[in-house]
Amino acid sequence: MNSAERSIVRDMSLAPQGRLKMDWARDHMPVLARLRERLSVEKPLAGEKVAISLHLEAKTACLAELIRDAGAQVTITGSNPLSTQDDIAAALAQSGITVFARYNPSPEEYKDHLIKTLESRPGLIIDDGGDLVSTLHAECPDLLENVKGGCEETTTGILRLRSLEKEGKLRFPMVAVNDAYSKFLFDNRYGTGQSVWDGINRTTNLVVAGKTVVVAGYGWCGRGVAMRAKGLGAKVIVTEVDAIKATEAYMDGFTVMPMMEAAKHGDLFVTLTGNKGVIAAKHFQVMKHGAILANAGHFNVEIDVDALEQIAVNRRIVRKDITEYTMPNGRKLNLLAEGRLVNLAAGDGHPAEIMDMTFALQALCLLYVHENHKKLGENVLDVPYQIDEQVSRYFLEANGMQIDDLTEEQQRYLASWQLD
């Protein structure tokens, strides 16, 4: 049985459409192209099985094909029910990669796709949000012995891994790709900053300038979203639970206040905290008529959609990816993409050039685990600085830029404690 026959996808006839999108992304990912030149010849993952759970769209497909070209047998599933693109899933299945993913599966189907991916008995894992690793530890412990280690893409996933590690239950090394400088400085900040507003603007077709935007969370993703909102002409309020981050937001020129107060002023809300109940029933009660709610955190728990459903006296779909909720007093609140990741559920995710860097980190870190897993322990690990820097160097070279190198005298000076 070939990969297309093994796969579970919506419609294989969509494959040509998906391939066009993948070709466009591939043409704008020069760092992966450089890696492909080397890895497709060396085949360092020959004989290895790799399981991937990521947002299944065009840039992800380019990473999956790179890993396949490096010699691995690849099985892939989605990491969010609304971020899988059915044409991409079909194109990958046609290309020799086994795919278990459909757009908007039921919760039962989503879990089944994760388990089927794990049943490929992978030696290496790439995860986004921790669903694959959590399912492996909780529901498929008999498959743990096959796994050498893997990489995690997101803040949320790393929190889950740290919890597993703290309880002494993590059974293999996982590299925290999200925490690499080349990830959070660029992907989280510039990628999220642009793609969130791409998703919101595409979905609402409304102007941002002049509106009050409330950004919940001032991590790297929150910084990016706030910065782009300001650039689009919005007045920006930041809510935080961390005093240091709140101070930074203030020094960056944003207004800082608790969500209960911000809820009264906001025209548009974006949550990026990784936590649940950030916008809750008490906040809905004081929001303006017409307020728009969007989430850019990994899971759909940051906005309490259940509470919104219970409070509302009516709900209707007013536009693709917009659900309007009518409150008892007639006010209407608008929820984007069911409270799921607005940049992926209602958009195409981060720009290709940004994901080029992130997925180069994923590929290089996967090779690092493959080559060193026996001495890495059962831990959550930082990305080695050499890999982090290498990706940025590749990016600069691909864009025709060069930087200076330290002279031997400068190196000696920096390494010495003496004054002269």
CATH architecture of the largest domain: 3-Layer(aba) Sandwich
Radius of gyration: 22 Å
Largest sheet geometry:
8 strands, mixed
Integer count of domains:
2
Mean pLDDT: 96
Count of beta strands: 15
Give me the oligomer status: single chain
Strand neighbour order, sheet with most strands:
9-8-7-10-11-14-13-12
Unreliably modeled segments: none
Q: Write down the CATH topology of the largest domain.
A: Rossmann fold
Highest CATH level, the class of the largest domain: Alpha Beta
| Percentage of β-strand residues | 15-25%
Please count the helical segments: 18
Q: Can you walk me through this structure?
A:
With 420 residues, the chain is of the alpha/beta class. The chain is built from 18 helices and 15 strands. The protein has two domains: 3-183 and 350-398, 3-Layer(aba) Sandwich (Rossmann fold); 192-345, 3-Layer(aba) Sandwich (Rossmann fold), CATH 3.40.50. Helix 7 links the parallel strand 4 (124-127) and strand 5. The chain is globular.
Question: What is this structure, in a nutshell?
Answer:
The protein is α/β, with parallel strands linked by helices.
Topology:
Layout: H1 3-6, H2 15-27, H3 30-42, E1 49-54, H4 58-69, E2 73-78, H5 86-94, E3 98-100, H6 107-118, E4 124-127, H7 131-139, E5 149-152, H8 155-166, E6 174-176, H9 181-204, E7 212-216, H10 220-231, E8 235-239, H11 243-251, E9 255-256, H12 259-265, E10 268-271, H13 281-284, E11 292-295, H14 305-311, E12 314-319, E13 322-326, E14 332-336, H15 342-345, H16 352-372, E15 380-381, H17 385-398, H18 408-415
Parallel strand pairs: 1-2, 1-4, 2-3, 4-5, 5-6, 6-15, 7-8, 7-10, 8-9, 10-11, 11-14
Antiparallel strand pairs: 12-13, 13-14
Helix pairs in contact: 2-4, 2-5, 3-4, 3-16, 4-16, 6-7, 9-10, 9-16, 16-17
Protein name: Adenosylhomocysteinase
Function: May play a key role in the regulation of the intracellular concentration of adenosylhomocysteine.
InterPro entries: Adenosylhomocyst_ase-like_sf, Adenosylhomocysteinase-like, Ado_hCys_hydrolase_NAD-bd, NAD(P)-bd_dom_sf, S-Ado-L-homoCys_hydrolase_CS
